[in-house]
Amino acid sequence: MTSPTLAERPIPGSSTQPLPKAPRRPETPLRRFGIPLALLLVTLCSTTAVGMRYMHNFRLHAAPYSGEADILPYDWVFAHLRDWPSGLPFSLTLVGILLAHEFGHYFACRLYQVRATLPWLLPAPSLSGTFGAVIRLRSGIRTRAALLVIGAAGPIFGFLVAIATISIGIAHSTYAPAGVMHVQPTLLIFALQSLLHPQTPLALIVPHPILTASWIGILITALNLIPAGQLDGGHIVYAISPNAHRICSRVVVAALFLLGIFCWGGWLLWGIVLLLPAMHHPRIPDSLPLTRAQFALVPICAVIFILCLTYQPFHGYSIVDGLNKLFAHYHYRIHL
User: Fold this and answer.
1) Looking at residue 3, what DSSP letter applies?
2) Does pLDDT of 40 surpass 60?
3) Backbone angles phi, psi at 129, to 5 degrees
4) Does residue 16 lie in a domain region?
5) How does pLDDT run across 90-105, given as a tens digit for each residue?
6) Per-residue pLDDT at 74
7) Which one-letter DSSP state was computed for residue 32?
8) How confident is the model at residue 181 (pLDDT cuts 50, 70, 90)?
9) 142 within domain boundaries
10) Does residue 7 sit within a domain?
């Protein structure tokens, strides 16, 4: 996803023009290449560490996330450093999808002469080892056509890579009578599983770490395509109509709060993020009509959003589920 960048415009109610920009300092090679490379290396380490644990669980025919021992398993990782290469299938898959997504944005920026950094991967102590990736814009986007293409290019590039990695992940997965698929598969995974292994129900799959990483990658793709704020989906809707963007953002935030209560608590966090001032979309005055080729990106991204989205990524983690567990806990304590 692209990071928020405010467009220059006169102060409301003033007839003065914006002050000229200060001369731009040249970007040093260390800053241009050093920061992205350092973040790439750290993210490869953090995602490989997580991938080691997922590969360990896969070899035991267990779910990728099988218990509390899989939360920040760094003590276990340091005790099994000889197995470091086993985490690479997960790591390279997830990093590959994220880089494809961000380079889609980057090349679209180059096409429309918008200055942008190389992709910055974000390492994190999480179940995936990363918080995703961003590029930072160094200059404003001046036309809605550019906004649409830049916003759509990332999800499309990442989606194409994910099709290949999901297919590889399905081919290397195993199957068990009881199955261990504890996450909600997306329509894309259902479709590819039905195409590649129509005789085996997806519920019986023991997902290979490549498939697990692909599932995380397409979930991130779907999150970025949420049609609100300065997410990729928000850019696409704004390029079509600023008024539609304003209405859609409000409806989406309300829907995310409801989904957070009843389906998955993470939606609540995304709803809060979209309310932050930094997520308000800057004004782009250009109103020239989009070409047919540009507008064709809209239904393509809509299909990608539907294929990659799941309203309940994890079972049992809604606000209602949390309250039920809390009440059950106290009920148990009371009757001890």
Assistant:
1) P
2) yes
3) 85, 5
4) no
5) 999 999 999 999 999 9
6) 85
7) I
8) low
9) yes
10) no
HSE-up of residue 51 (Cα within 13 Å, Cβ side): 28
Phi, psi for 144 (deg, rounded to 5): -70, -30
User: How far is Cα 63 from Cα 55, in angstroms, rounded to an integer?
Assistant: 10
Instruction: Please give the Cα distance from 89 to 99 (Å, whole number).
Output: 15
Cα–Cα distance between 296 and 214 in angstroms, integer? 26
23, part of any domain: no
The DSSP symbol for 81 reads: G
Domain count, the chain: 1
Within 10 angstroms of residue 306's Cβ, the number of other Cβ atoms is: 13
- Contact (CB, 8 A) for 294 and 150: no
219: its two tokens = 């979930």
Residue 277's domain comprises 29-334
Give 331 or 200, the one with higher predicted confidence.
200
pLDDT in tens, 102-112: 999 999 999 99
pLDDT single digits (tens) 294-324: 999 999 999 999 999 998 888 777 888 888 8
User: How many CA atoms does the CB half-sphere of 101 hold within 13 Å?
Assistant: 32
Contact assessment for residue 182 and residue 212, using Cβ atoms and an 8 Å cutoff: no
Predicted confidence band of residue 16 (pLDDT cuts 50, 70, 90): very low
